[in-house]
């Protein structure tokens, strides 16, 4: 009995723990966040979901990271400098599903088209979907009359 409980706990942890903790993606893999790299191609075969983390590795001062909206992404509109991530090892936890856009705001790195990362974040796998609405109660039927004498109902 104890081994059955342990098996169930281990099985549940195997299924749910990865979706709770999320995966960590090193943006650009071993290349990191730099010029002359195709981040759209890098992201193309990745499956991002809520809870995952993006890690932007780069030489501090050489680059930065901005999360922007779709219009700013297309136009390479750089937000105010105080919104930049600048540590050289920036970690962004993907907290909500939807489209996300990241750019470098140094020099013309974004405008040259090579320091732009668009991704789509999916809801967390294994997350509970809303329960369906309960169906309405059935309409009452005609009254039922039972006869004790004959032990049947009409």
UniProtKB/TrEMBL annotation:
GO terms for molecular function: electron transfer activity; metal ion binding. Keywords: Copper, Disulfide bond, Electron transport, Glycoprotein, Membrane, Metal-binding, Signal, Transmembrane, Transmembrane helix, Transport. It is found in: Membrane. One of its GO terms (biological process) is response to symbiotic fungus. Residues 1-22 form the signal peptide. The keyword Transmembrane helix applies. Gene3D superfamilies: Cupredoxins - blue copper proteins. It holds the Pfam family Cu_bind_like. Its main location: membrane. This is Uclacyanin 1. It comes from Vitis vinifera (Grape). The gene is UCC1_8.
